[in-house]
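ok so I'm stuck.
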Amino acid sequence: MTSPPQTTGSFGGRWTYIVLAIAFLFVLMPFLFWNATWFGRPLTDAQLTRAFADHQHPREIQHALTQIEMRMERRDPAVAQWYPEILRLANDPVDEIRLTDAWVMGQDIRAPEFHAALLKLLDDPNPMVERNAALALVRFGDDSGHALILAMLRPYDMPSPEAGSLVTRLKPGDVVNPGTLVARLNERGRASTEIRAQVPGILERWQVANGSAVAAGQPIASLAPSESMVWEALRALYLVGRADDLPDVDRFARGAGGMSPQIAQQALATSRAIRDRTSS
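replied:
not stuck anymore, here's the structure
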C-alpha cells in the first residue's frame, strides 16, 4: 500500500520562506528609507549637479549641500565648481535650503563671495537663517551678527503671522522645535491659519490669552532658548563676545535653565575669554 502524499513538510517549508521574506523586508525597507533620507550618503559629481537642478525636491538640494560641506572639510579643490550654485541658493524661497546654505558657506572662509552673501542673510525673514548666517560670519572673523547671537541666549518673542483669533495648542513647559504647531488663528469666513515655531525652545508663557484677538506681528508667546542654541551662541561669543554680554553669559555659568553641565562649562570658558579680551 502506498503512503499518502506528504504535504505537511512542503507547506511548512513554504511558510518558512514567507516568514523569512517578510523578515527580510522589515530589515530592507528601513534601510532603503534611511539610505534615501540620510544626508551622509555620498553623491557623485553628476548626482550633485542633478540635485542642485532639482527644484521640486528641496531635500535633495539639502543633501547636495551637506555633501559639499563634507568635501570642503577635506579641502577638495574641485568643490569650487558648485560655488555659484551655493550663492544662488542663498536667495532660494525655501527656508530650509537657505538655512543649510548659510551653514555651508561658513565652511570656506577663503571665499569672499560667501562672506558677502552671509551679510545679506542677516536680514532674512526666517530667524533661524539669520542665526546660521551670524554664526557662520564668526568664522570669517566678522561679528556683524553679534546682536543675533546674543539674542540666542534670551527668550524669543514669537510673533503672530497675521491677524485673527488665537487658539492655543501647547502649554508652558512644552518643548518646541522649528515646524512645531504651536497655535492656530481663526478668522470669520476663512479656514484657520497654522502658527508653527521657527526657532527651537521651551514655551515659557503665552503673552496673549486663548481666544483673544491678535494683530499681525504681535508677540503671542515667549520661548526660552533651547540648549543647542545656547551652546552655539556661547561658542561664538567665546570669539566675539563683549563685556556687555557677560550678564547673559554668566547666567548660564550659574546653571540657568536647568541645562546640562556642558553648557555651564562652556559659559565659564566664554566668560573667561571675554574678560581676558576686554581687560587687556
